Amino acid sequence: MLQLVNVGRKSLGDYATLVSRGLMDEIRRLAKPLEGKRVVHVSATAFGGGVAEINYTLVPLLADAGLDVEWRIMRGADEFFNVTKAIHNGLQGAPGSLTTDDQEIFFRYNA
What is the mean pLDDT of the chain? Predict the structure, then answer.
């Protein structure tokens, strides 16, 4: 089971004095067709790094826009997170590939 992260509550209205009314209206217009759609953000940790910093604001704002959204954390040992970090770095252009052992670790945790 993936652990739920409590992100608290935030409102788009909290940003009304920082952005134009037109932008606020556009956000709500774009969110309208997604109202009630379920979105789950999954990451390795709730602390440190850009994903955590973004999700603590993004997730509650998406909820305020009408989406059914949550953020969950994967459980795993260092061996798994070393593989996911290698995948992450590869997607960002780092050279290298996954070994047969890396692939086995990845598939075992995902099973």
Answer: 93
pTM of the model: 0.77
Task: Give bridge partners of residue 71 from the DSSP assignment.
Answer: 41
* Cα separation, 110 vs 67, whole angstroms: 27
Q: 49 and 33 in contact (C-beta within 8 Å)?
A: no
Nearest to 6 by CA among 70, 75, 53, 74: 70
Residue entry with tokens 């955590």: 52
Average pLDDT rounded to a whole number, residues 57-84 = 93
Number of H helices, E strands in the chain: 4, 3
